[in-house]
Write a structure and sequence with these properties.
By secondary structure, the chain is of the alpha/beta class. It has 10 helices and 8 strands. It is globular, with a radius of gyration of 17 Å.
């Protein structure tokens, strides 16, 4: 069994039919998928679609790009009493590569949502890009359970994350990057710290680059990491699924 711990198939702009997506995911052995919110409306839609499909779960959060709008809606969604289908707060974090929101707005939204995660005993899905110097002190003030989504940063920050008990989310980037430092970092990640994701519709893995990404293709990510470690895909599936259930405890319900 495989779990796609990060996708955006709930979004209205997603170009593939949901029934077909779920059928192909099932055929590929993908038993559960987490639809991850990035804005107020998007988070609402993630919760709504998860409530309608047994294999789908939701995460609610304001992406750093959307931080200028605040996070009041996320507080409302959680204070209404999150269903068992809401498994995390995310994706939240800091992104200094772009400046869609100021650093001050991003930090305020991150800290506020970390407090919400603490108050509701939920793990966190983090988006951090070129911002770890500011991120780590904020993280250490809260120290939540969580995962660094779509991680492509340095070995130093990978070690810092794992030393804090965070999981590392890997997706199609790990299958096509040409950066030797990233390739080395991906190869050295221990299975006990690994989560699989697609970030669909983005970051389609090799050998299907140029097509729309979808949860079924998390199998290709698993195959890549199995070959990289010279182990079976079954072992990768077992270990990463165990990790997903350990972090997102509501997946067990």
């Amino acid at each position: 069994m495989l779990i796609d711990t990060h996708c955006h198939i709930h979004e209205a702009s997603y170009p593939l039919d949901l029934a077909d997506i779920l059928m192909r995911a099932s055929a590929a052995g993908v038993a559960k998928m987490i639809c991850v919110g990035t804005s107020s409306q998007d988070s609402k839609e993630a919760v709504e679609i998860a409530d309608k499909h047994q294999v789908l779960y939701a995460a609610v959060g304001i992406h750093p790009h959307e931080s200028q709008g605040g996070y009041d809606t996320i507080a409302e969604l959680l204070e209404q009493g999150p269903t068992e289908r809401t498994v995390a707060v995310g994706e939240i974090g800091l992104d200094y590569f772009y400046t869609h929101s100021s650093r001050e707005q991003q930090i305020a939204a991150l800290e506020g949502q970390l407090q919400l995660a603490h108050d509701h005993n939920l793990p966190v899905i983090f988006h951090v890009r070129e911002a770890f110097d500011d991120f780590w002190p904020i993280y250490d003030n809260f120290h939540p359970r969580g995962v660094l989504h779509s991680f492509t940063d340095s070995q130093q920050n990978a070690d810092a994350a794992m030393g804090r008990g965070l999981f590392i989310g890997v997706n199609g980037i790990s299958t096509f990057t040409r950066d030797e430092r990233q390739r080395s970092m991906f190869a050295g990640l221990p299975l006990d710290s690994l989560l699989l994701e697609t970030d669909a519709p983005f970051l389609t893995p090799v050998p299907l680059r140029g097509t729309i990404n979808e949860p079924a293709l998390v199998e290709k990510v698993a195959e890549f990491h199995a070959n990289l470690r010279r182990i079976t895909i079954e072992e990768v599936a077992l270990r990463t699924t165990t990790n997903a259930h350990a972090l997102f405890t509501r997946l067990n319900t």
